[in-house]
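Hi there,

I know you've been waiting on this one. I reran it after we fixed the sequence typo, so this is the corrected version. Both the input and the resulting structure follow.
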Amino acid sequence: MKTNKKILLGITAGIAIYKVCDLVSRLIKRGYELEIIMTKDAAKLVSPLVFETMGRCRVYQEMFHDGHHEEVEHIELASRADIFLVAPASANTMAKIAHGIADNLLTATALAYTKPIHFAVTMNTNMLQNPATQDNLEVLKRRGHQFIESSVGELACNTFGDGRMAEPEEIAEYIDVIAYKKDLKGKRIIVTAGPTRERIDPVRYLSNDSSGKMGYAIAKKAILRGADVVLIKGPTAIESPKGCKTIDITTTQDLLDALRNEFPTCDALIMAAAP
């Protein structure tokens, strides 16, 4: 489904660049249109052709080209982007952006971009905790830029600690939250999902093969659009959406009781469960 949002993705030379291949695929599947800038060192780690193929777009690398071009690329790229995401965001690139250094296409575009930039931080733990890096992060935060925080885990340098880039799905979900228009803000929506089970005896029950996927998908979209969502769900094997109230039910009587409790204060009820 098209979102009509254009994402400018800046790719730096962090070892977590391998995760960005998956991230690009997830963003394309969600309907975003991409433009990509890679630093020269990033292009040494993964070929730009990989991202051009997966992102279905041109990958920009150079500030200057042979021949004549009508566009001033860093200005045009900045003006076209609805969302500017830097992933992986290295200590070097964030330091340059914090101090207004525009010595490559990515940092020059960042200087021309007038909205918050979103950084998916990744680096060695000692680099992350270095006072210089922490000062740079504080400068960027004071200017309104946003961060997808790193996590604790195994790092490429064979150490365990903070500095691991967020997983691609986590970053994609973060982008979803900021991309969607909040036209349902202030609305309370109940969504039912999944099967019910009716016991025959202690070891047997009547049920159906409902996966709950449709109800979960509806709930996710309502959350992204700013609604206060209540998800009433039967037994399923999939993870519940984040950001909503969930009520677990088993029988049709449980479903009825939950609806009677929640319905009086809702603005809309979407019945996707399979009793």
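Quick highlight: The chain has two domains: 6-179, 188-271.

Best,
R. S.
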